[in-house]
Amino acid sequence: MYVIVVYDVDVKRVSKVHRFLRTHLHWRQNSVFEGEVTRAQLYEIKRTLEDLIEDNDSVLIYELPGSNFTLHVIGTDKSPVGEII
Amino acid sequence: MYVIVVYDVDVKRVSKVHRFLRTHLHWRQNSVFEGEVTRAQLYEIKRTLEDLIEDNDSVLIYELPGSNFTLHVIGTDKSPVGEII
């Protein structure tokens, strides 16, 4: 499955979350990661993020059935991966 | 089609981009919008964003074939919509 991860966390925890996600996924843009993962990897990503974040932090993981989405880039693509429209 | 819009724009332009996207889509989290749009609406969103942003700004629009993705929320859901896992 393909996932898009976006997060809105306290500035104190941003680098911790960023460093962790970078070990599993592709950095796309400020607070945005994406990539192909297995069910087990998704479970581990969720479990670790639950430990890393606190209180009012928020992480959204969009789990897509596959990577058959289309990506439209407007302005600068800060970290190109795959096909761009 | 369903779209997820994430943006990384200069602080001077954040509120302009936010105000515009709010007229078409659901605010989800800091710099993240999503929602169902037609092809014509997607075209207008892209065209208007091209006018609003500058230089090193970046907007990514993930166009999904439908809304059959699964959303995993970790921590706080800043603006619930639809089904949450």
From TrEMBL, chains A, B:
GO MF entries: hydrolase activity; metal ion binding; RNA endonuclease activity
InterPro entries given in the database record: CRISPR_associated_Cas2, Virulence_VapD/CRISPR_Cas2
Listed cofactors: Mg(2+)
Going by the UniProt record, its keywords in alphabetical order are: Antiviral defense, Endonuclease, Hydrolase, Magnesium, Metal-binding, Nuclease
* TM spans (from-to): none
Enzyme class at the top of the EC tree: hydrolase
Binding residues for Mg(2+): D8
Task: Tell me where on the tree of life, at the top rank, the source sits.
Answer: Archaea
Give the UniProt record's GO annotations in the biological process aspect. Answer: defense response to virus; maintenance of CRISPR repeat elements
* SUPFAM superfamilies per UniProt: TTP0101/SSO1404-like (SSF143430)
Q: What is its EC number?
A: 3.1.-.-
Family of the protein in this entry: Belongs to the CRISPR-associated endoribonuclease Cas2 protein family.
User: What is the recorded function of this protein according to its Swiss-Prot or TrEMBL entry?
Assistant: CRISPR (clustered regularly interspaced short palindromic repeat), is an adaptive immune system that provides protection against mobile genetic elements (viruses, transposable elements and conjugative plasmids). CRISPR clusters contain sequences complementary to antecedent mobile elements and target invading nucleic acids. CRISPR clusters are transcribed and processed into CRISPR RNA (crRNA). Functions as a ssRNA-specific endoribonuclease. Involved in the integration of spacer DNA into the CRISPR cassette.
How is the subunit organization of this protein annotated in UniProt? Homodimer, forms a heterotetramer with a Cas1 homodimer.
- Output this protein's name: CRISPR-associated endoribonuclease Cas2
Source organism per entry reads Thermococcus peptonophilus
